[in-house]
Design a protein that fits this description.
The chain is of the alpha+beta class and about 200 residues long. The chain folds into three domains: about 1-45, no CATH class; about 45-125, Beta-grasp domain (Ubiquitin-like (UB roll), Roll); about 130-200, DNA polymerase, domain 1. Helices cover about 25% and strands about 10% of the residues. The chain has helices at about 70-75, 130-140, 150-160, 170-175, 185-200; strands spanning about 50-55, 55-65, 95-100, 100-105, 115-120. Strands 2-1-5-3-4 form a five-stranded mixed sheet, sandwiched between helices. Helix 2 (about 130-140) crosses helix 5.
Length: about 200
């Protein structure tokens, strides 16, 4: 048990141990979300049927109304590429595309995206066929720890769809919502600029 948060009545942790939370199988779409019992919750919660098309695949989930799109993608769809950073829409690590528009998935409820087309980092390319942005990030070494990279690439893909950024200053401004704690901004800029230039050539 985690001792960082103790119950005021018993002095024992109120957080579940890692072993109490269901592990994620490697296969896509077979992730089993943590059970309510693992968090000490026993009362039933009314769920809603949410239909999303994720990376071209129609999916249906039965979700509590407060489930964010970020949690739906990670805990229910098993797509762990989308990262949970600040959980307040301030870092951009959770950026995905909804109908081609980039959004912070931690700031929208899954039910609000009913019927929408969702693209995550997993949907932009494959291990054998990288997208232009994914290849450019590798070529320019545009990452260090890599935690922010999926959000950076999804945001840059949205930037390409928008077609409003052409100069380095414009790219900096349009990508300013995506933070990199490792400070790889120079290389990120170079990677995005290369693809922007190729697209407008």
């Amino acid at each position: 048990m985690n001792d960082d948060q103790d119950s005021p009545s018993t002095g024992q942790s109120t957080l579940p141990a890692a072993s109490e939370i269901t592990a994620a199988p490697a296969a896509f779409g077979k992730y089993r979300a943590p059970t309510r019992a693992a968090f000490g919750l026993t009362s039933p919660v009314e769920t809603s049927s949410v239909h999303l098309t994720i990376n071209g695949q129609p999916r249906e989930f039965h979700l509590a109304p407060w489930t964010t799109l970020l949690d739906a993608l990670r805990l229910y769809a098993g797509l762990m590429g989308t990262k949970k950073g600040c959980d307040h829409g301030q870092c951009g690590a959770c950026t995905v595309l909804v109908n081609g528009t980039r959004i912070n998935s931690c700031l929208t409820l899954a039910v609000m995206q009913q019927g929408q087309q969702i693209t995550t980092i997993e949907g932009l390319g494959t291990a054998t066929s990288l997208s232009a942005l994914q290849q450019a990030f590798i070529d320019h070494d545009a990452f260090q720890c890599g935690y922010c990279t999926p959000g950076q690439i999804c945001s840059a893909q949205g930037l390409l769809y928008e077609g409003k950024a052409h100069t380095e200053d414009e790219i900096r401004e349009q990508m300013s919502g995506n933070l990199c704690r490792c400070g790889a901004y120079v290389n990120i800029l170079a990677a995005v600029k290369e693809v922007v230039d190729a697209q407008t050539a």
